[in-house]
């Protein structure tokens, strides 16, 4: 009998394992566009920035709210591509599992560095964060894919995650919620008093209330004093909290399903059409569900998962058409036009770390100017961008300039063919 490759944890088509791997340039471009826009909105120039350059205050959806889920979507696609490539080179499942654990641990630690830099005040050090969520989702979805690469199991878990999270937020009482009780001390009227009792969303507390929700309550119990919005008592919450990792895993699974689709042996044109159809389905179902389960990035609601994935799929379909179908992988005009995004996408973690650590360092440098205490960022803003007549355009110019500044070290790494891999 001919020698065969080692079997995966469950069943997988031999063609999937043996298929020759070619770097998916469209995925690098999508990753690069996402990280560039992430840098822009994280450094949007302040309160004068356009609304689409800011997160929605609570319920709602802006272009900025698309950034993080698109990055998780890209992580899901990348899991498929990286796993197939390593299996084709002869790696074992045990080796891949160890690599997944190691990479997730490093990502989590890098997130702690971002949160604490430069002083690392441990008494209020934030544990949750962007890289931490990426690490958790990558770890769970990556190991799940190693264990079982069948499509239907991913769809089943995705459905369970989205519906289960909705049920959790809708039906689980929030312990110690502040609710109003009506009492009738006299026959001619009511009086009202406020008490702390388990509150049921949609009945005696509002559904998706900003403070009284099970997600924020869990985070206040686990990480008091270590949350992103660490206000006193019941106002403390974190947009990357523990329970909202559940639907974020759904976002990563949607990326993984897209990766399975583009990694299949179908025609390139069929893959493009499939991505576009999936985008339409996610957008339609997500916006419909949002009538009952509002879009909310800070809670990472299930409707938000579908809508964000729909837009991510739509952008991916467009880039995939340009780079893989129109260009047919010949690295022609598509690669030339996409060069800046390829530079960012090839060193996404390095770009993100630079964009997060550089402002922290600059804001902690102070000097006196005309009797005022200034930082380098404040000085530049005052002498350059504040002179732009329209404050919104000034904020946008600052955002673009800062992104260009972060591009320089990433471009130098790209030129020297240095790619920082976790």
Account of the 3D structure:
With 422 residues, the chain is mainly alpha-helical. The chain has one domain. It is 58% helix and 7% strand. Helix 4 packs antiparallel against helix 5, helix 8 runs parallel beside helix 10 and helix 13 packs across helix 15. The longest helix has 25 residues.
Give me a quick take on this structure.
By secondary structure, the chain is mainly alpha-helical.
Structural class: mainly alpha
Shape estimate? globular
Residue share in helix: 55-70%
Give the topology string: H per helix, E per strand.
Answer: HHHHHHEEHHHHHHHEEHH
Instruction: Provide the domain count.
Output: 1
What is the helix tally?
Answer: 15
Strand order of the largest sheet: 1-2
Beta-sheet strand percentage?
A: 5-15%
Low-confidence stretches: 1-21
Q: In whole angstroms, how far apart are the ends?
A: 39 Å
Write the layout of secondary structure elements.
Blueprint: H1 14-18, H2 25-42, H3 67-88, H4 93-116, H5 130-147, H6 151-171, E1 174-186, E2 189-199, H7 214-222, H8 245-262, H9 268-289, H10 302-326, H11 333-337, H12 339-346, H13 348-363, E3 367-369, E4 372-374, H14 376-383, H15 391-415
Antiparallel strand pairs: 1-2, 3-4
Helix pairs in contact: 2-3, 2-10, 2-12, 2-13, 2-15, 3-5, 3-8, 4-5, 5-8, 6-8, 8-10, 9-10, 12-15, 13-15
